[in-house]
Amino acid sequence: MLQFNPVLTYNGSKLAVKGSFPEKQPSGLVTIPSCNLLIQDLKKRNALEIPHNEENLTHLLHEIIEEIFELAQRVSASWNGSSVTITFHRYRFIEGCQVIWQESPQYCSKYPCPACSLCGALIAEGIDKVVTLDRCSMSSSSQDVTAIFSILSEPDGFHYSSYETVFDIFLTQPLPKDEGPGSLH
To answer: Domains in the chain, please, with CATH?
Structure first.
C-alpha cells in the first residue's frame, strides 16, 4: 500500500510508483503510509482479511481500533454516499493530537497519524477505490477525534476539488521487491 501526498490539487490521473516527483501532473510524494507497520502486524498476528462491504469494514474498524490496538474506548463509523466519517471516542492519544493541532490544524489531513491512516487504508483496500482524508477534528472536552474521508470516483478526465492526502495509491497489491522505496534499482 502506498499513500500519495499531492503538492497541488489532485486531478485523479494515474500515478507511477517509481517516481515521487513525476514530470507531468500530478506532483507529489508517493510514500508508505504511517499505518504500514500496524497493517503488517495485523496480517502477521491476526491473519487480517479486509472485507469488501461497508458493514463488514465497519465491524473490522471496531475490532481493530477498540479491541486489538485499544486506540479508543469506542469507534463509530458513518457511511453516507461517497463520505465516511470515523470517530474515535475517548481517543487514547488525544494529547498528541492537541499539540499537533496547535502547531498546524492542517497537518493531520496532510500527513495522517497511524490511526487515521489505518482507517483510510482499510477503507481504500476494502472498497478498491481512491480514498482521501478531507479533515480531522477533535473535541477536547470529550477526547473524541473525527476523521472525514471521501471515496473518489474513477478518474475519467474529471477534476476533483482540493484534497490533502489521497489514499489508495494505497495500491491494493504489494510492490515488486525491487521497485519499492529504498530499492537500489
So the answer is: 3-172 (3.30.1380)
